[in-house]
Structures are given as structure tokens and as C-alpha cells.
Amino acid sequence: MRNILVCIDFHEKTSVLIDKAREFAKVFGAKLWLVHIAAPDPDFVGYEVGPQYIRDARADELKEEHHALMDYSKNLKEEGIDAEGLLVQGDINDLIGEEAKKLKVDLIITGHHEHSFIYEAFFGSTAKAIVGKSDVPVLVMPFS
């Protein structure tokens, strides 16, 4: 196992996910790819972006997420683990598989959050979508 993709969503239990990925990386000497798929820009999904303050707020949000990814990867590197953080914008259900292929990953690690029936009906489960589309094994960590 050489490359592990870790799906980061900045949930309060992201550290649990990274800890599990750290264990795998140490055992297998694998590189960790910490990937966060940010929501697409409104223009991408057919809505006008709006006033400048909205664009500025979105840019600040992306900048904060990027810095958080860099901090995670820096901390792992300080422990001797090869790690890179990637921030990509778009549809998570499509992009995780694309990134996994590009990075030639051997394992995907993601978390699963419990949601209401209504939420699942409208938005579905990201973890289920990743498992359904993946060509490589997926480790799903339950977050309850």
C-alpha cells in the first residue's frame, strides 16, 4: 500500500479520521493524501455569485480550509509521515473517484455521519456514493 486518500470535511471528528490514517501510513509506509472537496462556486451550479462581499467571504472560507489542510499535513510530516493536503472544488461524489485515480491510491478513508431520513432522501450519503463508485477499498469510519 503506497497511497491513501483521506476524505477531510472538517467535521469535529476529523482528528479521529486522521489518527486512523496515521496508523495505516505508519504500518504500510504509505503517503497520505488529505483531500477536501469544497462546494463548487455558485456560478458553477447556475447561480449568480452576487455582491463582492459574498465572493470575498467565499474566498476567505476556501483560504481557511486550505490552511487547515496544510496544518494537518505539516503535523503528519513532523511525525515522519509523507502527507499532502489537496483542496479541490466541485461535486464530491465525482471528484473523490477522479482524485483517487490521479493519485493512484490503494485505499480511501472516509467518515460517515448519521443524518435524518429526509436529509438522506434529498442529499444521499457521501460515504455510500464513494463506496459505490470506488475501484479501490474504502474504509468508512462511523461518526456518531
Feature tags:
5 helices, 48% helix, Rossmann fold, globular, 5-stranded parallel beta sheet
Q: Could you give a quick summary of the protein structure above?
A:
This protein has 144 residues and is of the alpha/beta class. It has five helices and five strands, in the order βαβαβαβααβ.
3D structure, described in words:
By secondary structure, the protein is of the alpha/beta class. The protein has a single domain, classed as HUPs (Rossmann fold), CATH 3.40.50. Helices cover 48% and strands 23% of the residues. The chain contains 5 helices and 5 strands; from the N terminus they run βαβαβαβααβ. A 5-stranded parallel beta sheet has the order 3-2-1-4-5, sandwiched between helices. Strand 2, helix 2 and strand 3 form a beta-alpha-beta unit. The longest helix has 27 residues.
What is the fold-level CATH name, i.e. the topology?
A: Rossmann fold
Order of helices and strands: EHEHEHEHHE
Percent of sequence in beta strands: 15-25%
Shape: globular
Q: For the record, what CATH class applies?
A: Alpha Beta
Integer count of domains: 1
Biggest beta-sheet profile? 5 strands, parallel
Low-pLDDT stretches: 119-124
Structural class: alpha/beta
